[in-house]
Amino acid sequence: MAQQEDVFKKIVSHSKEYGFVFPSSEIYDGLGAVYDYGQLGVELKNNIKQYWWQSMVLLNDNIVGLDSAVFMHPTVWKASGHVDAFNDPLIDNRDSKKRYRADVLIEDQIQKYEDKAQKEVDKARKRFGESFDETLFRQTNPRVLGHMEKRDALEMRYKKAMEANDLAEIRQIIVDEEIVCPISGTRNWTDVRQFNLMFKTEMGSTADGAMTVYLRPETAQGIFVNYLNVQKTGRMKVPFGIAQIGKAFRNEIVARQFIFRMREFEQMEMQYFVKPGTEIEWFNYWKAQRMKWHQALGFGTENYRFHDHEKLAHYANAATDIEFRMPFGFKEVEGIHSRTDFDLRQHEKYSGKSIKYFDPETNESYTPYDIETSIGVDRMFLTVMCHSFEEQTLEGGDTRTVLHLPAPLAPIKLAVLPLVKKDGLPEKAREIVNNLKFHFNTKYDEKDSIGKRYRRQDAIGTPYCVTVDHDTLQDNQVTLRDRDTMEQRRVPISELQHLLEERVSLTSLLKKLV
Ligand code: ATP
User: Fold this and answer.
1) Comparing 167 with 313, which gets the higher pLDDT?
2) What is the Å distance from ligand 1's center to 15 Cα?
3) 261 CB less than 6 Å from ligand 1?
4) Does ligand 1 lie within 6 Å of residue 335's CB atom?
5) Using CB atoms within 10 A of its CB, is residue 199 exposed (0-12), middle (13-18) or buried (19+)?
6) In the predicted model, what is the mean pLDDT of the chain?
7) Radius of gyration over every alpha carbon of the chain, rounded to an integer in angstroms
8) Is the Cβ–Cβ distance between 335 and 374 less than 8 Å?
């Protein structure tokens, strides 16, 4: 585990060192859980967004895009339930003055019992070797059973308290479990309070009565309030979908793990409107489709899993998360929810306007059901970085840091390197860049030795480099180097576009989805 944390730290500093992600307002010591994307980060992020957008809007005749505003009428958030219920329970430690999410403290405690049981299992496996039967051991070993009993009892008590929104009981659980603040080491806890995660601001001057507005905590509501506009003007027939990419804001109490949990982040959401009664079928369809999208990147099927929700939000009748194995464990990257007709009905109720869909085939009006797929761009970015980062020891003991980014997502697809800065080689290299830059992101680099330039391109994930040498001037061929295998081969300049275009374009990924 410690080793994994180490890797994660390296990924964070690598991201900064090479211009992928910077802490916001760094010269003022940063702003908690807000980050800026640098010159390479913005390219990678845009490519991720393009991959998602095209998989939705280009590949599906019945899915269209939308770009709704961050600000919305405040009643939207009343109707959606965010004003009353978008809360996290928080607790402060009086000695360290640190704030925690009470639910996270308890969930960590549940995990601790599981870890203790796992330790016993690991110890026994070492002792018994080949003949070890884990299932039998878990069923019979008194120490494992003891830890698991405590775990189950705690989980049951916690779930009950959360369902009843019993904040005093949640505090009591923290006290009874003797959970201490990791900073002060004490159990001097305040009461538990609910904390709304929406950022508020004022719109208009106070003279004409300023209105409290919110920074949207999700992009979905912009889709719901526009669904009938889009349906009518686009002459859409159920089932149809609306896709949107945009910023969302949440005043997260505990923001940790780099860009995993941010206060300003970006979401890619698609709401798919279906006939009531068909929603579970569509839920299963999108579940499979979204997993395919992730796995097309080639990060290994074993690094993904579904986490189906047992306890459903009041508006959902099915829900699952797609989790990815980050260096700090399996974590949610995307949520897929069958949200029934909850949101549309709420907006009908609060606006007083009918937003029913008229089905021309059956001549009836109804409120469609909705399947939502919702993925964080930043979390996806982190997934890509975590899987791609490698410190490799090469034959002969040399090391290199390489980002094995899928070529269609890489910020730069091809670096063109003149062997030396003279003899007409820079001019020849620039000529190649000027021809290829219309087709994919091609960059020129002449600084440092060729070896150093290769290393630098490896570190930023550039899948291909070509070197222009003296022979090039005679035979119009260059040396093409592959980032992952480091293999080099001579190819005619005239073939470069044809050779690389298919491999570095999103088309190669998109074709895996249909
Ligand atoms: P979590 O349980 O991690 O807080 P959530 O279940 O509240 O997430 P959703 O409301 O389902 O998340 O949002 C959909 C997606 O948006 C998540 O799967 C995640 O990728 C992304 N997301 C949510 N909150 C954040 C955040 N604070 N920072 C970055 N991405 C986020």
Assistant:
1) 167
2) 21
3) yes
4) yes
5) middle
6) 95
7) 27
8) yes
| SS3 state of residue 393 | strand
Give nearest CA residue, ligand 1 atom 13.
Answer: 374
pTM above 0.85, yes or no: yes
- 171, 91 Cβ separation under 8 angstroms: yes
CB neighbourhood size of 310 (10 A):
7
Which of 3.30.70.100, 3.30.160.100, 3.40.190.10, 3.30.40.230 is the CATH number of 87-196?
3.30.40.230
pLDDT in tens, 102-150: 999 999 999 999 999 999 999 999 999 888 999 999 999 999 999 999 9
What distance lies between CA 448 and its chain's CA centroid?
A: 36
What CA–CA distance (Å, rounded) separates 151 from 117? Answer: 10
Q: Give the integer Cα–Cα distance in Å for 409 and 381.
A: 10
Ligand 1 close to Cβ of residue 219 (< 6 A)? no
Per-residue burial over 160-172, b if 16 or more Cβ lie within 10 Å, else e, is ebbeeeebebbbe
pLDDT at position 1: 52
Q: At what angle do helices 167-176 and 102-128 cross, to 10 degrees?
A: 40
Identify whether the C-beta of residue 426 lies closer than 8 Å to the C-beta of residue 418. yes
> Architecture of 404-513 per CATH?
3-Layer(aba) Sandwich (3.40)
With tokens 């500093």, the residue in question is 13
Tokens read off for 190 = 């305040």
Cα(191)–Cα(97) distance, integer angstroms: 13
Q: What's the CA gap between 504 and 499, in Å, rounded?
A: 10
Q: Are 293 and 383 in contact (CB under 8 A)?
A: no
Calculate how far, in angstroms, residue 512's C-alpha sits from the geometric centre of ligand 1. Answer: 27
Please provide the distance, in angstroms rounded to a whole number, between the alpha carbons at the two ends of the chain.
Answer: 38
5 burial via Cβ count (<10 Å: 0-12, 13-18, 19+): exposed
CA of 160 to the centre of ligand 1 (A): 24
Structure tokens, 58: 């280009």
With a 6 Å cutoff on the Cβ, whether 245 touches ligand 1 is: no
**Candidates 3.30.930.10, 3.40.50.2300, 3.40.50.2000, 3.40.50.1370; CATH matching 1-73+197-202+211-393:** 3.30.930.10
